[in-house]
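Quiz preparation item.
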């Protein structure tokens, strides 16, 4: 696994960088965030798990923003300074967008 923020390799058993808590990518070549587009959002832990499972089952590379802030209550909270708790964004590579939307039945 690779941390795009720290620019280092991390043990494959980790999901987040132990230094900066950034979601890890499968490999360094996946680190070009300009090549990723948002496909959906989720505020529910169950939906987040299902989306991850569906994307993984099709070997679609994805980035999740905000998963470590996912609410157990299944809702979104906005606090002082614009902190957005509970909302998760899913991004996939631009070339995989159509396939991901079809899999998730979002098109």
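Solution:
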């Amino acid at each position: 696994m690779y941390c795009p923020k720290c620019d280092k390799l991390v043990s494959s058993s980790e999901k987040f960088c132990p230094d900066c808590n950034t979601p890890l990518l499968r490999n360094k070549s996946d680190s070009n965030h300009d090549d990723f587009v948002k496909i959906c959002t989720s505020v529910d832990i169950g939906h987040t798990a299902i989306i991850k499972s569906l994307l993984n089952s099709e070997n679609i590379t994805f980035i999740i923003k905000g998963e470590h802030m996912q609410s157990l209550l299944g809702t979104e909270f906005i606090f002082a300074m614009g902190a957005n708790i509970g909302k998760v964004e899913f991004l996939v590579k631009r070339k995989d967008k159509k396939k991901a939307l079809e899999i998730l039945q979002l098109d």
